[in-house]
Amino acid sequence: MPYQHRTGLSPDCRKSLLIQESRPPPLTKPEKCKPNKEEKNPELQHSTQGEVVCVTGASGSIGSWVVKLLLARGYTVHGTVRNLKDEKETKHLEALEGAGSRLRLFQIDLLDYDSLAAAINGCAGVFHLASPCSVDQVHDPQKELLDPAIKGTLNVLTAAKGLGVKRVVVTSSISSMWPCPNWPADKIRTEDCWTDIEYCKQNELWYPISKTLAEKAAWEFSKEKGLDVVVVNPGTVMGPNIPPNLNASMVMLLRLLQGCTETYQDFFIGSVHFKDVALAHILVYENTSVTGRHMCVEALSHYGDFVAKVAELYPEYNIPSLPRDTQPGLLRAKNGGKKLMDLGLEFIPMEQIIRDAVESLKSKGFIS
Ligand SMILES: NC(=O)c1ccc[n+]([C@@H]2O[C@H](COP(=O)([O-])OP(=O)(O)OC[C@H]3O[C@@H](n4cnc5c(N)ncnc54)[C@H](OP(=O)(O)O)[C@@H]3O)[C@@H](O)[C@H]2O)c1
């Protein structure tokens, strides 16, 4: 998730970073994990009652959804936050159904191995989501993005291996697949596509570099040490935001509704709903036969398509008119997430993603 344009964001677009709501809305009963599809999938019928798993970055927007669905499926969850004393990191997690008896929170830093090992100890599986995402200019890319992403991933995997974890799901990104200007122009992007690091260095695209190098480090570790690793590569994730803070992709939508004209040329290749990303994590964890990377987008699309749909659904906002083709070289395709679709995931369409995300921004008071 992408959300730092290589030319930097315009001042208007920088407004509203790290906006906090004053009052978290009441959480409704957690939805079930699409039970119809799971029933069709024999490997999802194994009992999860009592199985303990760790979710790093539990406090974040995607992490909260992963915790919510894991609790709904009967798991016991060790969730990591950066500051246990900060209610903005903990309260929304403690309010989730099942949290009272099956959620334990741990304070960690990605560069502090011992803190991670304490959270992972006793877990059968790990979902590694914690990683910094920045929409603003990064002053010190090594310290702010690369070290926590790469060393953090290696710390998590080392602890997992040492503590006998069975499987680790690593949350990578489409930012480890895009930008990749040398991909054949007539070929739809697949999991074979890797971000071009040299292009990113030339254009100071530090977030894609951090996600690409972290994912590559994970694959290398898995091969060398024999740890079972599987990867989810989400596109731009939006929908009902559980924590009080917005993540970078929800900030991106908020800025669009405020008139921001960024095209996210090197970052966007499709949107996806929070719930589907959380489901994808659980699907690849529970289906022990699946391997490799999993592109997680409702479709391969241009940011211009997304913006046009927002404008159509919400004409009352000041949505800029952008060209349709904002991602040069990206072929549109309905089945970018085919590997996950083959596992039974039916992606929520872009229109519903937008509606859920905009209504979430409204209900939390970010827009009126
Ligand atoms: N949002 C997207 O569209 C998108 C798309 C593809 C992939 N992803 C990936 O999905 C994951 C979650 O992203 P998100 O959108 O949910 O963002 P988020 O809401 O900002 O969550 C990031 C999480 O990582 C934690 N974290 C960051 N740096 C850390 C550090 N040094 N030590 C410990 N914890 C740290 C954060 O803790 P604090 O709350 O304390 O900061 C937070 O819990 C990330 O790996 C991201 O790269 C996101």
UniProtKB/TrEMBL annotation:
Gene3D superfamilies: NAD(P)-binding Rossmann-like Domain. It comes from the Eukaryota. Residues 1-46 are annotated as: Disordered. One of its GO terms (molecular function) is oxidoreductase activity, acting on the CH-OH group of donors, NAD or NADP as acceptor. Keywords: NADP, Oxidoreductase. Residues 29-43 have a biased composition (Basic and acidic residues). InterPro entries: Epimerase_deHydtase, NAD(P)-bd_dom_sf, NAD(P)_dehydrat-like. Residues 53-287 form the NAD-dependent epimerase/dehydratase domain. This is NAD-dependent epimerase/dehydratase domain-containing protein.
